[in-house]
Amino acid sequence: MTYEHERRIAELAVQRACLLTKKVFHEKAKGTLAKDDKSPVTKGDFGAQALIIQAIAKNFPNDEIVAEEESSELRQDAALRAEIWDLVKDIKLNDAASDEVIGGSLANEEAMLAVIDQGKSLGGATGRIWALDPIDGTKGFLRGGQYAVCLALIVDGDVKVGVIGCPNLPIDDSEALTTNIGSEQSDEEGKGVLFSVVQGEGAVSRPLTNAGLAPSKPISMRPVPDVSQAVFCEGVEAAHSNQDDNASVAKRLGITAPSVRLDSQAKYCSIARGAGDIYLRLPMKKDYQEKIWDHAAGDLLVREAGGQVTDIYGKRLDFTKGRTLKDNKGVVAAPAALQDQVIDAVQAVLNLK
Ligand SMILES: Nc1ncnc2c1ncn2[C@@H]1O[C@H](COP(=O)(O)O)[C@@H](OP(=O)(O)O)[C@H]1O
Ligand SMILES: [Mg+2]
Ligand SMILES: [Mg+2]
Ligand SMILES: [Mg+2]
């Protein structure tokens, strides 16, 4: 089947990177730095980016990579660099055959920095481009909440493959519906899900493991007979989406259930498996451009699970414009049958018509 090799490499690479992020999640000192835009980055983000790019570069040396992080801060911080290298050099899948296809040890710290910087592609409308968010929801990761390791392959502007590792999501889909997963702590027993999707082949999930890939099962959005019965998801960080506007949209749709708040693309994953139905990300700042690595994998996952994903104008997310979604504003994802109704409510609340 098409893109089966890409899917497998991406799944194994994300699964291995999750071993590293889980290790850092349990450490008190996560090596947090503030980037130029004041947002945090940790040892986990840098380490996961190195491991995943290494796997892509080994298997698909001609592909481009648009990744969130870069190494300049690390080049000036020998201590942090050494700590990250300590993690990266030791992380392996506990299954030799699986580790082999994504492995091949990096030689040293310098090789690690070089690999991190292979994620500087400018993106665009042509060719094979991977979009990588080594930790999405870094603030959730630091808070002890949800986060996700996200990787997508975009070919000529179209998302073909998406893989998302969510170490802190419950494995059981129905438990996710009844638990307040937004405030759930830690990644103990019963947690950790790997989602994946190939265009035209549907979306699947499987438990994350520390070795080879576990058996997968198909996932889909749940039917919602009446929009007022829908559960909506939104981010925890009030600066990333307008929670007041999100609430006004829900009210307009007759939704009375409280929102499920969780960080990262775990929101796309949750609605794709029927743990929630609608994802609202209404803009806070007029000029903010969403990043492609924050949405590419989740966009395809939800669409293949029976949903639609658009911006606040009802326009599909456009991954051809470079590193950002500069022609889109906000994100609205819902079961296909409800999307028009939800967009109508969004536009009424935002005075767009
Ligand atoms: N003003 C803003 N509006 C929307 N998204 C923003 C934002 N500032 C940062 N972000 C993005 O929000 C992502 C997290 O989304 P969420 O709030 O849904 O968990 C961050 O990803 P990272 O954590 O990978 O940096 C970051 O890229
Ligand atoms: Mg970030
Ligand atoms: Mg992100
Ligand atoms: Mg990130």
From TrEMBL:
Top-level division of the source organism's lineage: Eukaryota
User: In the UniProt record, does the keyword Iron occur?
Assistant: no
- A Pfam family reported for this protein in Swiss-Prot or TrEMBL: Inositol_P
Could you tell me what reaction this enzyme catalyses? adenosine 3',5'-bisphosphate + H2O = AMP + phosphate; 3'-phosphoadenylyl sulfate + H2O = adenosine 5'-phosphosulfate + phosphate; adenosine 2',5'-bisphosphate + H2O = AMP + phosphate
The record's keywords, sorted A to Z, are: Hydrolase, Magnesium, Metal-binding
Q: Which residues bind Mg(2+)?
A: 68, 133, 135-136, 294
Q: Which GO terms describe its molecular function?
A: 3'(2'),5'-bisphosphate nucleotidase activity; metal ion binding
In the record, biological process GO terms are: inositol phosphate metabolic process; phosphatidylinositol phosphate biosynthetic process; sulfate assimilation; tRNA decay
- Which cofactors does this gene product need? Mg(2+)
Listed EC numbers: 3.1.3.7
The UniProt family comment states: Belongs to the inositol monophosphatase superfamily.
NCBIfam families (alphabetical): bisphos_HAL2 (TIGR01330)
Role this protein plays: Converts adenosine 3'-phosphate 5'-phosphosulfate (PAPS) to adenosine 5'-phosphosulfate (APS) and 3'(2')-phosphoadenosine 5'-phosphate (PAP) to AMP.
Q: What is this protein called?
A: 3'(2'),5'-bisphosphate nucleotidase
Q: Which organism is it from?
A: Talaromyces pinophilus (Penicillium pinophilum)
